[in-house]
Amino acid sequence: MTAPTHGGDAAAVARGAGTAFLGRAGAVIEAVSQPVFTQLFGLATYGMFIALWSYGRVAAMIADLAMTTALQRFGSAARNEETAHGVLRLALAVSTGLAVLLAALTCALAPVAARWLNVAAEDEAHLPAIIAFYAWSLPLWTFIEVATAAVRARHAFGPEIRVRIFYEQGSRLAFAIGFFFLGWHSYGLFAAHMASLSLAALLSLRLLTRYYDFGMLLRCPLNGDQRREILGFCLAMMPANLAKRLFSDLPPLLLNLMLPGAAGAQAAGLYGIARKIASVVQIVRQSFD
Fold first, then answer.
1. Residue 29 half-sphere exposure, CB side, CA atoms within 13 Å?
2. Is pLDDT of 201 > 60?
3. Cα 279 to chain center, whole Å?
4. Which of 128, 124, 169 is nearest to 22 (CA)?
5. Which has the higher per-residue pLDDT, 26 or 174?
6. Count of domains in the chain?
7. What is the pLDDT of residue 178?
8. Is 283 in contact with 142 (CB distance < 8 Å)?
9. How far apart are CA 37 and CA 29, in angstroms?
10. Closest by alpha carbon to 131, among 112, 154, 158?
11. How far apart are CA 34 and CA 130, in angstroms?
12. pTM of this structure
């Protein structure tokens, strides 16, 4: 009788511990970034960033159309590779297509949206251009969401955490510091986020090539019945997903709209800082549970 070996179990435990550590380290990086951003760019500019990113996350959730949830439901349970690739193909087409449309609409309406948002006087002249530029974070973020959900459907969780939580947030901090010293005071945070999202999107694309066959992705569309089943599931899941996102991201946007001028931007910034501080406290509490 062969003695049982525990090397595989130990390696799996080590990988799981490393993944958990990266997840918590990423949350700490994001929390530590807040005082750096406010010190470099000012509370009002940081609050403008928080308000626009809150809008971006809500818009990205609408564009997502619960396709990331469908990937977990249908992609991971697919009986063959053709179906799994077909689900991913549908998710990419629907979600990124909607995200591009929403980004184009936001870009076109940037001058109108700028009249509603409250920002500091020094940022006011730049606001329409910032909105038009930052609108294109929607397709990037939506692609990252879909791509990493597809990787999760393959039961691979470590790569997603490294891309979305560690590399994206760490590079955003580095880019923001660099852009500040280049003199990009109004645009720096937005340019840094776009750069970090672009990097994360490239890394997500690389992950897709590791876990999926792009040739099969092009060759394997779903049939009409499969598409209708998935889209029906997505429409049923959409209200719950959107409600959770609104609960998280609507408050800073409402604060910005309620308070005039720089006060609205600062209120959104303070809310963003408080939320991150609370997340760090939660991480510490969980460490002792």
1. 18
2. yes
3. 17
4. 169
5. 174
6. 1
7. 96
8. no
9. 12
10. 112
11. 20
12. 0.86
What CA–CA distance (Å, rounded) separates 110 from 120? Answer: 17
- Per the listing, tokens 């609960």 go with 247
Count the residues in the chain: 289
Domain of residue 110, residue span: 35-287
**CA 132, 136, 142 angle in degrees (round to 5)?**
145
DSSP state of 80: S
* pLDDT (0 to 100) of residue 80: 85
The tokens for 262 are 């720089």
* pLDDT, the chain, mean: 86
Structure tokens at 48: 């403008």
User: Which residue type is seen at 231?
Assistant: L
Overall average pLDDT of the 74-103 stretch: 90
Specify if 283 maps to a domain: yes
d(CA 58, CA 78): 29
Is 4 a member of any domain? no
Residue 288's pLDDT band (cuts 50, 70, 90) = very low
- Asked if residue 270 belongs to a domain, the reply is yes
Q: How far apart are CA 145 and CA 199, in angstroms?
A: 14
Q: Where are the beta strands (DSSP E) in 187-253?
A: none
Whether residue 140 is contained in a domain is answered as: yes
| Residue 14 pLDDT exceeds 90 | no
Instruction: Answer for the pair 167, 148: CB distance below 8 angstroms, yes or no.
Output: no
